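Cross-posted from the bioinformatics board.
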Amino acid sequence: GAVVSQHPSRVICKSGTSVKIECRSLDFQATTMFWYRQFPKQSLMLMATSNEGSKATYEQGVEKDKFLINHASLTLSTLTVTSAHPEDSSFYICSARGGNEVTEAFFGQGTRLTVV
Amino acid sequence: RKEVEQDPGPFNVPEGATVAFNCTYSNSASQSFFWYRQDCRKEPKLLMSVYSSGNEDGRFTAQLNRASQYISLLIRDSKLSDSATYLCVVNFNKFYFGSGTKLNVKP
């Protein structure tokens, strides 16, 4: 199956700093990438959808200036958590989908962010 | 109303049991449907797609009822290794996840 690589898998940062998470599709062109956040014992919550070469679409309640998403190529999307605070500590997962809209999404391994 | 709703469980069943999960969705224009499995602290992995005519993959059977807007997953002859959280996913331009149903299969 298709492979999506997400990096880093785990990061600890100080409050006020920024953290960048990368999501790469390794063997297919990801026209659409999704970013999710999952708090403990809760479901995956869609944060934003990005299409290659265009601005991301953010879900209601997600601050676009805090969670910067860049999808500059068909194989790479990045999520930058700016001025991170302890409440941003969560499990962030990306997923990628190819050109056919009905194909399933493939997930990265996830990034566990801890802000101290 | 949430786009996708699931019973969170947990469902505690003995090995060998048959267990079924349901999931309802709100958007009648939803295009495709999936069941994912998520183990603790891991990323979700595709278990199976759900087709209108229903589909089976070994011990797993998925069904879709568009009229009532729900999908189901049936697991037969449960194994200990089936213990996980099962996520219902509905696609209408974006992928929306249910909260997941936790399954515990006990010896």
